[in-house]
Amino acid sequence: MIRIMPHPANPPRRAATPLPWPPALEAMAERRRLAPGTALFRAGDPARHVFGLAQGQVALRRVGVAGEDIVIHLAQAGECFAEASLHGGHYHCTAEAVGTADVAAVPAEALRARLRDDPDFALQWSALLAAQLRRTRARVERLCLRSAADRVLHLLQTEGHGRDGAYTPRSTLRALAAELGLTPEALYRTLAALQRAGRLRRDGPVLRLR
Amino acid sequence: MIRIMPHPANPPRRAATPLPWPPALEAMAERRRLAPGTALFRAGDPARHVFGLAQGQVALRRVGVAGEDIVIHLAQAGECFAEASLHGGHYHCTAEAVGTADVAAVPAEALRARLRDDPDFALQWSALLAAQLRRTRARVERLCLRSAADRVLHLLQTEGHGRDGAYTPRSTLRALAAELGLTPEALYRTLAALQRAGRLRRDGPVLRLR
């Protein structure tokens, strides 16, 4: 059963949780707030929407052959998911809000029509997918590094800004640890060790190379 | 210095190394064979091509703040890379053939023109990027799993075909180990343990769940 709580008419959080989306895409989207554990769609449902996640986390999971829970993707704020809905068919997994989540649902049919009719928009959409691919691939390489320190430094080098790789975690250090495939304790230890070694500086929430 | 060895006029390997590309994209591409270590492009070069990798591996790397080597992505056969070239600017990293590599170079300008003029092609291009995103995200989740056995089972569940998750490694088990963030020895041990536990069957090169 899908329980979607409609967003209030003048959502105060809308402005507070922008997606890095072209205005044309945002204009097509309908905002929805999901209570923790709510299924946004289930495997086998007709694929009718492409989603953006403005806030929270959404887990895309599937039941394995032996009945086990297979997480295919844990979508983070700022990302799209279910982009393949653009091409119809059915969802191959179930999407569930992990905590409270704010999603932007774009009807696949409207998106398809816009891609057909507006070449500039088609280029913007392609740029959006290419940027997500770049970030996801960098994350793969980071997770393949053996040492926790190397993963932290790789993050700042690839996602940080400016010469000193200034990087502001999107939410908590606990969430950052999960993103880096580390336990929170391992991340805290690693940050402290990098600071002692003079390789990292902490500037409020911002991490910087030095 | 970029040394690109032109492909012979009637390349016998062309048919042997197809890319999972729509014919319209393949028609725009120029095939190139790269000798090991050859730079396909360097950070700072004008971004003029989007690439597909038909065979081999290409490392996308950057020099870090402290002069260290940062691998941003290790492209595998069947994948695209440098998709952001479509939107102009300069390459942000250097691409280098790891062994011998066969690449398909698509001029960004021709690709942009085609995306503008051909809405069906724009949808095909979007589908290609969405499929790569799906696979790359599943790989992120797999690398976040602690146990080697869980990573192998996740691979078969997400990338395998049919009820028994039949999965044929793209090249060697050594390459598969790297893809799973494992040492070759750890992968061999894990496959043997899963077979003993009756959870995996090896059928020539094919791995199957049971």
TrEMBL record, chains A, B:
Family annotation (CDD domains): CAP_ED
GO molecular function: DNA binding; DNA-binding transcription factor activity
Entry-linked InterPro entries: cNMP-bd_dom, cNMP-bd_dom_sf, Env_Response_Regulators, HTH_CRP, RmlC-like_jellyroll, WH_DNA-bd_sf
Residue ranges of every copy of the Cyclic nucleotide-binding domain listed in the record: 25-86
Short name of one Pfam family: cNMP_binding
Protein name: Crp/Fnr family transcriptional regulator
SMART domains named among the record's database cross-references: cNMP (SM00100)
Keyword annotations from UniProtKB, A to Z: DNA-binding, Transcription, Transcription regulation
Cited SUPFAM superfamilies: cAMP-binding domain-like, Winged helix' DNA-binding domain
GO cellular component: cytosol
Keyword Isomerase on entry: no
